[in-house]
Amino acid sequence: MTLSEKVARNILEDVQSGTPFKPYSETPLRTVESAYEIQDILTSHLQASDRRGPVAGWKIAANSVALMERFKLKEPATGRVFSKQRDESGVQLKAAGYTQFAFEPEIVAVMKDTLQPGDTPFTSEQVSAAIDRFVPGLELLDMRHTDMPNTHIPDAIAQNISNVGAVTGGPGVPPDALDTAAIRTVLRINGEVQHDVTGAAPQDPLTAVTWLANHLASRGFALESGQIVMCGTHSPIWYHEGTGEIEVSMSGLGSVTATLA
After folding, report:
1. CB neighbours (10 Å) of residue 79?
2. pTM of the model
3. Spatial contact of 230 and 81, defined as CB atoms under 8 Å apart
4. Per-residue pLDDT tens over the stretch 114-148
5. Burial of residue 127 (number of CB atoms within 10 Å: 0-12, 13-18, 19+)
6. Cβ-Cβ contacts under 8 Å for 38 (sequence gap 6 or more)
7. Which domains does the chain possess?
8. CA-to-CA distance for 20 and 15, rounded, in angstroms?
């Protein structure tokens, strides 16, 4: 068993049991490349156990200039979203099912065509034509008491960057109708406004999806029809304890809700 396989098995046990985040640090520190190798192995275990199902999409993390500088990254980071954790607006979630629940409001791309690795490099025009629409979404996270600001980012990449699902709303807009700078994002919890910001996307969503398609192709993966792409958060990680209704509205795109019960 290789070191990457051993670490992936340890992460699998911790994720499934809800054990607090462990960095499994290496000397010298783990690289981004080795982190993705571990994430790929972890994915195979999660799918084999049938706990999360096939890959239903991808998240993009740390895709603002400030976050890339903070984490010493040359490009954003990415992780998987799995089919059994992908839900539509109005879903009811079990609050007790998370060690430390958090979420992020994001613009989400819904793919209509597959972008195959052999067709790279992809241009923004090609990627735009492959996107069905952009919709409002919630990325679901179980932080497991991760000290994210002080985490060596490859350790977070190895563990799929805390993703435990995605909720998508609508109705959304086609790519050519998206005006990112004008989008007002309003977060309400139990009807009370908690966050209200305009033009908060960390990166142009089409640019984000184009980067992801080329990044995945470099690792031998396709960005597939029907998959989603979470294009980066419009707020800091938002922690929430207990029950309650979460609603995010994005002007021009619609809204998305999830209830913790």
Report:
1. 22
2. 0.97
3. yes
4. 999 999 999 999 999 999 999 999 999 999 999 98
5. buried
6. 4, 7, 8, 11, 158
7. 3-260 (3.90.850.10)
8. 8
